Amino acid sequence: MSEQILIQFRADKALKQEVAEIYERLGMDLPTAFRMFMAKSKMVKGLPFEALLPENTITRAEAKTAFHELRTQAADVSEMTLDEINAEIQAARAER
Length: 96
Known about the structure:
Layout: H1 13-25, H2 30-44, H3 60-75, H4 82-95
């Protein structure tokens, strides 16, 4: 057997738990899944899945501008009372 090394990294606790549960349902633990990931990466000489940027991207400045435009539009909308909100909900439910 070849020499073994320890690999450590940090991950979000909730994400780690969710992923561990997925692999447990598949009959393996996280270390086995990560070894499989590395072996497949070696075979394909890259990531073992497609890694693509989304086609439609916006810059932070564009997102900020869009957000401020929406806030401006929302400022012109009159506020509803609780009774008006409840009436609108009841009307939508009645349409179903």
